[in-house]
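step=predict obj=AcrR family transcriptional regulator n=238
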Amino acid sequence: MTTAPATPSAGTKRERRKEARPGELLEAALDLFVEKGFAATRVDDVAARAGVSKGTLFLYFPSKEELFKAVVRQNIAGRFEEWSHELETFEGTTGELLRHCYLVWWERIGATKASGITKLMFSESQNFPEITVFYQQEVIRPGQDLVRRILRRGMERGEFRGVNLDYAVHVVMAPMIFLMLWKHSMGACMPDALELGPEKFIDAQVDNVLYGLCARPETGPFAPALSSPSLPSSPSAV
């Protein structure tokens, strides 16, 4: 006689449901933060979308601010360790590394819902100083430090010319910010004929950045303006 597979007990289902709740809450919160913004998102709505009570939400996240921080850590800030490891173990040229980082960023952040967090911060950061300071510490500064390390790698290898790193970091990051804002706001204002292909845009931007960074003789009428201070002696690390 064949024995039918055991049916999970109600208690087991509840345990699995309880274990799944933090992830479901973070997914629901990301959806609503991107759709409505920080100010307009209510914890009641997050709990309802996740299928739990508001009291259950507060068991995991004591406030909307802490919920937002958890969303950012899960989707963006928590990735810097893996990105740092990829930088340290990359074996190609720094130009290839830069292109790789742009594409990886697009795949893991830009093309996902998490890219909408950038628009949220642009729109609401001045009204919420606590989450602004948090975002600066856990996203902006680590991101800048990571880009700085990439540029310094190229300079130390003689692949990139000497540049002012404080400004070059923004040159590298600007296309990423543009793409996220295009995806969540600017793009909606443009006709279909001007639809932007993210991968092609990244290719164009990488080529532009690399031609500006590649080592070259300091000659010609613009040489004095393009020359920059020598490589600092104390490299910064993430």
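step=describe
The two ends are 63 Å apart (CA to CA).
step=end
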